[in-house]
Amino acid sequence: VILSxxxxxFKNIQLINKxxxxxxxxxxxxxxxxxxxxxxxxxxxxxxxxxxxVEKASDAxxxxxLTTAKHRAGLLRKWFNLLEQxxxxxxxxxxxxxxxxxxxxxxxxxxxxxxxxxxxxEARTVLGQIIPSPxxxxxILVEKHPIGVVGIITPWNFPHAMxxxxxxAALAAGCTCVIKPAAETPLTAxxxxxxxxxxxxxxxVMNVVTVNVNKASQVGTLFCTSPLIAGISFxxxxxxxxxxxRLCADHVKRISLELGGNAPFIIFDSADxxxxxxxxxxxxxxxxxxxCVAANRFLVQSGIYDKFVAALTEKxxxxxxxxxxxxxxxxxxxxxxxxFNTVTRFVEDAISKGAKVxxxxxxATHIGQLFYEPxxxxxxxxxxxxxxxxxxxxxxxxIQFKKEEEAIKIANSTMAGLAGYLCSSDVNQIFxxxxxxxxxMVGINEGLISMAEAPFGGIKDSGIGREGSIYGIDEFxxxxxxxxxxx
Length: 487
Ligand code: ADP
Fold this sequence. Notes:
Elements: H1 10-21, E1 27-31, E2 38-43, H2 47-64, H3 69-85, H4 87-98, H5 102-122, E3 129-131, E4 139-146, E5 149-153, H6 161-173, E6 176-180, H7 186-198, E7 206-208, H8 216-225, E8 229-235, H9 238-249, E9 254-258, E10 263-267, H10 273-285, E11 295-301, H11 302-317, H12 337-352, E12 356-359, E13 375-378, H13 385-388, E14 395-401, H14 404-411, E15 416-417, E16 419-423, H15 427-436, E17 441-444, E18 459-460, E19 463-464, E20 477-484
Helix pairs in contact: 1-7, 2-8, 3-5, 3-6, 3-7, 4-5, 4-7, 5-6, 8-9, 10-11
The protein binds adenosine-5'-diphosphate.
Residues 153-155, 180, 182-183, 216-217, 219-220, 236-237, 240, 243-244 line the site of adenosine-5'-diphosphate (ADP).
C-alpha cells in the first residue's frame, strides 16, 4: 500500500504524511465523492493504538488542567492564526474529501476557524462565584473545573467546523481530547490537529485517531466505556447518538449530542417572497442538503403558495451542479452511496404515495455516480418518508396549509427538534410562532443561523447540550463547591 496524500497542496501533504509515519499497520483510502478517485490514504489504527492515545490524553490532562486560562487562550489564538494562514489549503482538502463546492468549503473553514478564535476569548471568562451563606461561620465558594479527557466523534458533512467547535471549547475549558473524525473526511481533521500542534498545543492534549468506517462502533464503545474518558461530544445520526447515550450510562458520563433534525421551513402569506426564497435556498441546498439544520419540510400558506413555488423553482433550476473544484458550481455530489440510495429511496417512496414532481426527481448520473438532481416535490403527505425523516439531500418537499395553527401542528409533528425556520412580515406572528416551535433554534426570515457566538443545539430527539456561545464551554466544565468553615 502506498502511504500518501494525493493532495495538490504541499503543506497538507507534509502534515498528513507525518501522521501516517506515526502508525505502521493498515490504512484506508479517502475518496473524492465527485469521481471516486483516491484523495489520500490514512492509518486504520487498531483499538490498542487508540487506547494508548486515550491513556496519553489522560496523562496529559494532569498538566493541562493546571495551565492558566491565559496560557490556553494564547495557544488557541496561535492555532487560530495558523488556521487562518492555511485557510485556502484546508479548504482545498476539505472540498475534495467532502465533495463540497470550493466556495462553500472556504466558508466552512472561516466558520470553523471562528470557533477557535471564540474559544480563545471564552477561555478567560470562566468565572467562579461566592454565594451569600446562611451561616456567619461558613463561606460558599464555587469554581468551574475541566471534566477531564473528552472523546470527540464528528461527521463528514462539516469536516472542519464540527471539530473546532468541540475541541476549541474543550481545550479552553482545560480538557484534553481524542478526536475520531468520520472515515470519509479524516484529512481535514489531521491537518487541523497538526496545525494545533504547530501552534504549541501539546500532542497528547489534542489527538486525532483514524479508523475505517466499519470500526467506528468499536471506537464509540471504547470512548463511552473507558474510565479514562470523562465526557463525549458527538455530532452525527440520531441512531448512533442514542447508542452512545446508552453506553455512557454505565459510567454516568457527560455527553453532548448534536443529532439529526427535521426542520420545518414555514412561509406565511405576509412573507417577502424574494427574502423567503433566498433563505429557503441556503437552508435547503447548502452542502447539497446534507446539513442537520437543513430545511426538511416546506410549509407554505395557501395565499402565497403558487407565487413562492414558482419563484423558488425558477431559482433552483439555475443552481449549477458539477465538479466542486470549479468555482461556479453550487451543488456537488452526495457523500457516499448510502446517502445516495437513501435520497433515491425517499423520493421514490414519495412519488409512489402521490407526490408530484415539479423539478428533478431523479439521479444526475451523467455528472457522476453520486449526483442527485435538485428536486421539488408537491402534495407531500404525513405517510411519506420525506415528511418524517431527515432527507440529507437536495429535495424540497412542499406542504400547503391554510391556518397558522395548522402550520405549527405540522411543524411540531416530529420527534426531531433542532432548527425551525419561518418567513413572515408580521411581528406578532413572528414572536407567536417562534415561541411555539419545538426546536432549539429558530431562523426568522433567515436560512443561515449558525455562528460561533450563538448557541447551537436541539431538543427532543435532536440532542442535548449546546455548542458555541457562552454556553458551549459549560459542556466541558463541572461545578465544584468549597465550604470554608470555622470563620
Ligand atoms: P452518518 O450516517 O451521517 O454517517 P453517523 O452517525 O453514522 O452519521 O456518523 C457520525 C460519526 O459517528 C462518524 O464519525 C462515524 O464514523 C461515527 N459512528 C458511526 N457509527 C458509530 C458507532 N456505533 N459508535 C460510535 N461512532 C460511530
